[in-house]
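Hey, resending since the last one bounced:
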Amino acid sequence: MITRREFLELSGATLLLLYLNQLSFAMDTEEIFPQGVASGDPTQRGIVLWTRLNPKVHRCHQKDLVVQIAENPEFKEVLSKKIPAISINEKEDFTVRIDLDGSLRPGRTYYYRFLYAGVPSMTGRFKTLPERAKEISMAFVVCQNYPDGLYTAYAHLAKEDLQMVVHLGDFIYEKIYGPARVPGRDLSLPSGEKVSVNLEDYRYLYRTYLSDPNLRLARAMHPFVNTWDDHEFLNDYYYDYERKVWGYFVEGHPVGEERAKILRLRQAAVKAWIEYIPSRVKVNMSDEDPLKWVTIYRDFDLGGLGKLIVLDERSYREKPPCSRRFAAKGCPEQEKTSMLGKEQLKWCTEKLLKGSEWKVIANSVQFSRSQTDGMFGSLDAWDGYAGERRKILELLGQKGIKKLIFISGDRHASMVAEIPNDYEKPSQVLGAEFVTPALSSINAMEGGWWRRSWSNYKSLEELQWAEMSQNPWIKHINSINCWGYSVLTLKPDRVECTIYSIDKYRENAEKVIDACFLYRPGLLEKA
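The structure tokens again:
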């Protein structure tokens, strides 16, 4: 529901669209378009549009699908495209994606809907990227395990005035980690297993996650730019370059260690992601090299204000170093491992060094160094790949680049930090990192895992203060009852970031500000 304050803040068109879309949840459109509509990967002149038809309805009617795009919610002067009935089938799980790149105008707000058998879908909205911008706002989210909590945060995010939403990964969780923490969100994989073992398991998860009306509403109201983390495939996976297959740390997984089975599972996970996530990525599933099946790292021109650089920090990473991954003392191998792989690292550094505008890096795992009482919190994050991180920072420091922003996830906590040129002997600030909390997945307070390694601290608050004091570049941490999303606003001379916390256990929970920071080149401070 919309509060009185939100009612006054929202524009008339936004308010009307929210109202009509919420009404659609109780209409025939739900039966025909059960997973709603979505848009993704906006450019100056295009977008990727998406929907999925109910297979039973399509098998019964066998009608063509029509998509309409207009610059007004009344759909006057529409651009219309038809998708033949024969092209909508079980091969793609009845999902439909349309790339309109080159068909639209820069810096415009568009509305779209699908029509099937005379019934319209809910109405979607997106903005094309401007050619020149004075200000751009984007939200970023991460980690939305469906059984762990409600998607109340998405209800608030749907009302924001945004250019786009950047999803940093863990859109689904491939494993059932236990009973649901809120009623009505239990999962049961078609295979009967507790972890996904085939394509139908992954598809089931996407369909179930998208049964949530708040997630559908957010995807209708804003275009998403997605990358992935580990749970879209396998928890904490990495690439074994010798065996040319992905390795993982899931004990007792049904696929075992057999290379052919792991590769089939990878194909299933990638196919399901492509089917349900509207994006413009390179796909070649027939290539002999598994690393060439899909390339999701890509970049976006933010109207001359900056570049959004979207990384893939799972597919090419080597196995994390040292004898343990969490609460680890570290080892020399941290200087030798690669997170990005050779090709992506080269591509990334070229993007970072080109031009003087802001560089916003969509970064799935924490970039900042964090060592408490001599132990690294996670070598699954960039601390496990410290040598590669150091090379990137040295290069940026030499070039005097200070308009650097990392938007990060995975930690299941909010965090704000400076990015120094050198973590051993910092002498200048190159940028800032903003870590958004999990949207619904459990945090350290719920999981209690911090007690196993830092039992000398009486509370999580005490541990957080110790982490900040021992890592002076870290300016804010909250792992306690914090879930939600963040909004980043770029302006020519500064970047503002507000981190919002929304109680995942309450359907009507309000959003509260967890942290608000301002970064000017070389200077991070509270707003």
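The domain at 135-173+193-229+288-526 is CATH 3.60.21.70 (Purple Acid Phosphatase; chain A, domain 2).

Sorry for the duplicate.
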